[in-house]
Amino acid sequence: MQLAKVTGQVVATHKVESLTGVKLLIVQPLNSAYEPVGKPSIAVDATAQAGMGDHVLIEGGREAAVAIEPEFNPADQAILAIVDTVYTPEQ
Amino acid sequence: MQLAKVTGQVVATHKVESLTGVKLLIVQPLNSAYEPVGKPSIAVDATAQAGMGDHVLIEGGREAAVAIEPEFNPADQAILAIVDTVYTPEQ
Amino acid sequence: MQLAKVTGQVVATHKVESLTGVKLLIVQPLNSAYEPVGKPSIAVDATAQAGMGDHVLIEGGREAAVAIEPEFNPADQAILAIVDTVYTPEQ
Amino acid sequence: MQLAKVTGQVVATHKVESLTGVKLLIVQPLNSAYEPVGKPSIAVDATAQAGMGDHVLIEGGREAAVAIEPEFNPADQAILAIVDTVYTPEQ
Amino acid sequence: MQLAKVTGQVVATHKVESLTGVKLLIVQPLNSAYEPVGKPSIAVDATAQAGMGDHVLIEGGREAAVAIEPEFNPADQAILAIVDTVYTPEQ
């Protein structure tokens, strides 16, 4: 799982049936100092409440489909949580 | 999931049975400004209607097989939607 | 699976239901000489006892969800063990 | 899925039971101009007929195991088809 | 799947229950000329007989868990075979 920021949205009229009514958001991965790392990708919103600019927890793979209904959804990346704070003490 | 553009097609006569009748398209991943990023790969067309030059939404992994029938198809990348617009406001 | 060190924690109030009560730790992958390699990511703690600074064994993918209950949890990275020693003889 | 060329074979007498009788081929990924890209890896041959030097369609992940019998085979990369032609029109 | 060499072992007393009694080996991926490529990682030994210095066939993902018992083991990389020879003819 990774920290990310919501930076955009994708609109697609013609799509596979299981994605009907699912919000498709563009997410930019961040490090724990909230700096961008790597390339943005597209995730379904499993929290149903993430908005533009939010810091979120994303994950990929088969688990992403599990996060939304129906379970056999072909999604491969999902937003699981809206992040409040990141705690990284000096060690 | 990622944005991509359909750039070609692969023809294979001798293949595993579950890929019979499935369209195999070459897809080039794009960023949200529609510029190519990374290497093209080969995806099955789950929308049944993607054509040469279309902007599409692709994804990989176990979910790709779920997007087409039968469910236990050995595909690992599928086209899920034809993309109309990408919305990325300044922040 | 990889060696890693626990370096932080993520706090998220609004999240998918299956992550309720699950500890989300930031983990930095290490090589067998305990030096950092690659980027940190976020893992659920399946051992229930990993603490800040611990050396742990992490893994990713569908298996991470299997490591915690319920099985259909959308986690994609988990801490499986707290590592005591790494044995790498000269060859 | 990716284009690849068969470049070698691996012989292993002592192996897990489900790989008994399965051909293990070394495959070099190619781009659509048939040039090598990335590193070779080892795939099981699900077509049962791929030979040294053939252009093939390979894929990875859980789907690879689905391509051969029994379904719960621990393979993670399989050859799905022998490629006849690749069509990439100018655009 | 990839060629690799066994280069070490990890000892972990406190771990998830399904890893009890499972040997955790450090494996260095090799190319077909037996030269190291990429970073070492940690794999469970599904052959039950791989030893320090052996050339082995490893794979990752959900299939790794399938290679050992019980099937829902959270392993994500396993040793499937001890490699005898690699055949790569000139072409």
Structure description:
The structure is a homopentamer of 91-residue chains. With 91 residues, the first copy, chain A, is mainly beta. Chain A has one helix and seven strands; from the N terminus they run βββββαββ. A five-stranded mixed β-barrel of chain A has the order 1-3-4-6-5. The longest helix of chain A is centred in the C-terminal third of the chain and has 6 residues, at 62-67. The mean pLDDT of chain A is 80. The A-B interface holds A 7-16, 18-19, 24, 26, 39-44, 52-53, 60-62, 64-65, 72-77 and B 1-3, 31-32, 37-38, 46-47, 49, 57, 59-64, 66-67, 71, 78, 80-89, 91.
Descriptive keywords:
homopentamer, 91 residues, 7 strands, elongated, mainly beta
Task: Please give the structural blueprint.
The structure is a homopentamer of 91-residue chains.
Chain A: E1 2-11, E2 14-15, E3 24-30, E4 41-45, E5 55-60, H1 62-67, E6 77-82, E7 85-87
Parallel strand pairs in A: 4-6
Antiparallel strand pairs in A: 1-3, 1-5, 3-4, 5-6
Residue share in helices of chain A?
Answer: under 10%
Indicate the radius of gyration of chain A in whole angstroms: 13 Å
Q: What is the 3D form of chain A?
A: elongated
Please give the most extensive interface between any two protein chains, plus how many residues each contributes: A-B, 33 and 32 residues
Quaternary structure annotation: homopentamer
Please report the number of helical segments of chain A.
1
Structural class assignment of chain A = mainly beta
